[in-house]
Design brief:
Elements: E1 3-6, E2 9-12, H1 15-29, H2 31-34, H3 46-71, H4 79-89, E3 101-109, E4 113-114, E5 119-122, E6 128-131, E7 135-136, E8 144-149, E9 155-162, E10 166-175, H5 183-196, E11 210-214, E12 220-224, E13 231-236, E14 239-252, E15 265-268, E16 275-279, H6 293-304, H7 311-319, E17 326-332, E18 346-352, H8 356-364, E19 372-374, E20 377-382, E21 388-393, E22 397-409, H9 417-432, H10 445-448, E23 454-463, E24 479-482, E25 488-491
Parallel strand pairs: 18-19, 22-24, 22-25
Antiparallel strand pairs: 1-2, 3-14, 3-16, 4-7, 5-6, 5-15, 6-14, 8-12, 8-14, 9-10, 9-13, 11-12, 17-18, 20-21, 22-23
Helix pairs in contact: 1-3
């Protein structure tokens, strides 16, 4: 035999060993015919020459066997072998190179349409992106709006609802005082009123989470703090909505685009009258090369291992939903509901970003039959027979943070320095803090120190309504920290 098996696997014999074994076998087989004579099997004999001819291909054929076994083993197969194993046999296809996907927020005049395929670019890298769908600027399914002061005096009302979180509109009513006699003063009143509602109960246990700032033209920019969320805005009184902020997905125009840090995709390449601005509020990954052997093998193991309903498979399904930036799955395998509301033998899934219907479909296609889901977002998914199923999940819980500090100012401290500090902190929260990110005391100085001309004394922070200290604030895995201008108290000026 040219090869043998032992505990180490396949053992390949050399040509000399194979020839020797052939000669020994021939002597045994022909022993009767030889009647005690020795069989000639040396290199000069006919048999020796025959053995030399057949031993080489026998060894070569035997050497192929370990390669075949390697190619059939998901742990050792690579390259085309891995493709043959996972695709040809198991129909699991290697992921091809893909263009980068980015989540943008467009700013424009009400009624203006940005057609599908409109291009923007990263002002640092130059990478270009095209919109995946058309965008019409209005007050519905938007991340925010600009509020214009049309007349001074009377009562102003802003009502809003948040998709999936606040179905019943919440109202903010501003009654002007005698001193509110300019558009600038009115804008300040609106900003204070909107920001003051952050963290208060606006119904169904949901806390208000709008952020308002005053624009240079004395209009008021009002946005949902979580820029992955959308809602509907309406106003009444002496105010109107001239512009809105609408989210849209874009795809890179090449397969070799770079990553985009937050607020780097800001150039409008397609000139459209009334389209005023664009930005990416979150980090965006670069385009993806062809799936590596390592990743392909890992994904194949998950699927071949019976991934339906498994923790890792649910997470992978959620990661595949466009726009999802965070996902968490909590499992209750007991026969009783948990104190946190997870149903018996069920799942509680928290997702940040992504389309709600796509998220629900990903969950439905992954969880095992009979497994219940918990959460405050309820979506209906139909199976292949048209029967409807209820899928529940949640968005991250907002945790309002309070910050206090005293300042020692210097002559170069800006006149609006306090406002600039607050704005810097708010922008840092919006751009740098994600779900379950703890608020580290030392990192707060990053945005604060972008403003010059002062020194900070006695900085403290904590969850709003609780004790403030110089310690980090710990955030749970299904929570995200938020901040509003009202909750940043600055003294000592």
């Amino acid at each position: 035999m040219p090869n043998i098996f032992d505990e180490r696997g396949v053992i390949i014999q050399g040509i000399d060993e194979v020839r020797s074994n052939m000669a020994q076998e021939a002597k045994i087989r022909f022993s009767y015919e030889l009647s005690g004579k020795e069989l000639k099997v040396d290199d000069s004999s006919v048999l020796g020459r025959l053995f030399a001819i057949v031993s080489k291909p026998a060894v070569q054929n035997a050497e192929i066997l370990p390669l075949i076994l390697q190619a059939m083993d998901i742990n050792s197969a690579d390259g085309q072998q891995l493709d043959n194993l996972l695709w040809n046999i198991h129909r699991i296809k290697r992921l091809s190179a893909s263009q980068a996907l980015a989540y943008l927020i467009l700013h424009g005049d009400i009624g203006v349409v940005v057609p599908i395929g409109s291009e923007v670019s990263n002002y640092i890298t130059g990478d270009t992106y095209a919109t995946d769908s058309s965008v019409t600027f209005n007050n519905v399914d938007v991340n925010g709006v600009d509020i214009q002061i049309d007349s001074v005096g009377g009562t102003y009302e802003l009502s809003y609802s948040i998709n999936g979180l606040l179905s019943q509109p919440s109202k903010i009513i501003v009654q002007l005082g005698a001193s509110d006699n300019t558009t600038s003063a009115v804008a300040d009143r609106l900003v204070d009123a909107i920001n003051s509602q952050s963290g208060t109960d606006v119904g169904s246990g949901v806390t208000g989470y709008l952020t308002a700032t005053k624009n240079n033209d004395n209009s008021v920019k009002v946005v949902i703090t979580d820029q992955s969320d959308t809602g509907t805005f309406n106003v009444s009184g002496g105010i109107s909505i001239p512009r809105s902020y609408v989210p849209v997905y874009v795809t890179s125009t090449t397969y070799n685009s770079n990553e985009s840090l937050a607020n780097q995709i800001t150039r409008i390449n397609s000139s459209i009258l009334g389209w005023r601005g664009v930005t990416n509020p979150f980090y965006n990954f670069p385009s993806s090369p062809v799936e590596s052997d390592e990743d392909y093998r890992f994904r194949g193991k998950l699927k071949l291992g019976g991934g339906l309903g498994k923790y890792s498979s649910i997470l992978m399904a959620l990661k595949s939903v466009r726009g999802v930036r965070y996902e968490n799955v909590q499992i209750n395998s007991s026969s009783n509901p948990t104190n946190s509301g997870i149903t018996n033998n069920g799942l509680a899934i928290t997702v940040q970003g992504g389309d709600e219907n796509e998220i629900a479909l990903a969950i439905f296609n992954t969880i095992s039959c009979g497994i219940a889901t918990s959460g405050n977002i309820v979506k209906e998914v139909k199976d292949i027979n048209g029967f409807a199923h209820e899928i529940r999940f949640s968005r991250p819980k907002l945790v309002p943070i309070s910050i206090t500090m005293s300042l020692t100012t210097q002559p170069d401290f800006p006149a609006n320095g306090i406002q600039l500090i607050k704005q810097a902190i708010i922008e840092w929260f919006n751009n740098s803090i994600n779900v379950r990110d703890d608020i580290h005391y030392s990192r707060l100085f990053e945005p604060i120190n972008t403003i010059k001309g002062f020194a900070v004394r006695n900085l403290k922070l904590g969850i709003k309504g609780g004790t403030l200290s110089s310690e980090d604030v710990i955030i749970a895995q299904n929570e995200i920290a938020t901040i509003s201008a009202e909750d940043i108290i600055i003294g000592g000026i």
